[in-house]
Design a protein that fits this description.
By secondary structure, the chain is mostly helical. The chain is built from 12 helices and 2 strands. The C terminus is likely disordered.
């Protein structure tokens, strides 16, 4: 099968084997910036050896879209999300509006990727994402229907100052871990933990005073579908940053 795609500017790319070239013949005449687009991604370490069909229209980027791309790609790098975006090579993934939704999800602790690193369907359009965030806010345990990474519903009591301090400490430490490890699976795990913190802290009755923050992190992982590889990553990368009874040691108990 001929899976080579020659663009208007002479750039030749290799398409993924499952791409039907005939569906994209019309795009060939609209790719004068294809080489520039490819260089932007390749220079930042993206894997572009087999291009999916969903990315072909990116090669038709206008001058305006091309001018926006460097800032978008730089922002993705700063967020340590390159591997996730590389697993979602499609035009909408690299737009300012989509990136803003991802950032909002991260800020609110809402999981935005599936276990296979593909973006959840709810984040792909502004309308779906708006409904999704409303559901996440209104759900009794800050959970989202049909998201397997969220723990079972429980009544959530409002967190007090001490609970919020514990939550802030955990999120801060998880953020440090994520910034030091560019791994999309780790990002999924961390976002799942953050999404469950309110529910766990609300129902913990301050057991963390004795058991420490590690206990909260472990509880926040209950209900998350984990592979052996993910569990190993949790043990060696995440839980290693939360020693047993760390709060007690800090308080001199």
């Amino acid at each position: 099968m001929n899976n080579k795609f020659k663009c208007t500017d002479g750039t030749i790319i290799t398409l993924a084997l499952d791409v039907d070239l005939n569906k994209f013949l019309a795009n060939k005449n609209m790719t004068p910036n294809a080489g520039k687009v490819m260089d932007l991604f390749l220079n930042r370490g993206y894997e572009m050896s087999a291009i999916p069909g969903s990315f072909i229209k990116m090669l038709s980027a206008s001058e305006k879209e091309l001018s926006e791309l460097p800032n978008i790609l730089d922002e993705i790098d700063k967020l340590n999300l390159k591997e996730i975006f590389n697993a979602n090579l499609e035009v909408r993934s690299f737009t300012p509006s989509f990136l803003n939704r991802v950032k909002e999800a991260m800020e609110k602790g809402i999981p935005f990727v599936n276990p296979d690193n593909t973006f959840i369907k709810e984040i792909k359009t502004a309308e779906d994402f708006k409904s999704f965030t409303v559901e996440a806010k209104e759900a009794p345990n800050n959970s989202v229907v049909d998201n397997p990474s969220i723990v079972e519903p429980h009544e959530v009591k409002q967190l007090d100052v001490e609970d919020l301090n514990v939550k802030s400490n955990i999120i801060s430490r998880l953020g440090e871990i994520n910034s030091l490890n560019s791994d999309s699976t780790l990002t999924f795990i961390i976002s799942s933990i953050i999404a469950n913190l309110d529910s766990v802290l609300s129902n913990d009755n301050k057991a963390y005073r004795i058991l420490g923050e590690r206990h909260i992190v472990e509880s926040a992982l209950q209900g998350v579908a984990l592979t052996p590889e993910m569990q190993n990553m949790i043990n060696n990368t995440i839980l290693a940053a939360f020693p047993e009874n760390n709060m007690n040691m800090e308080r001199g108990i």
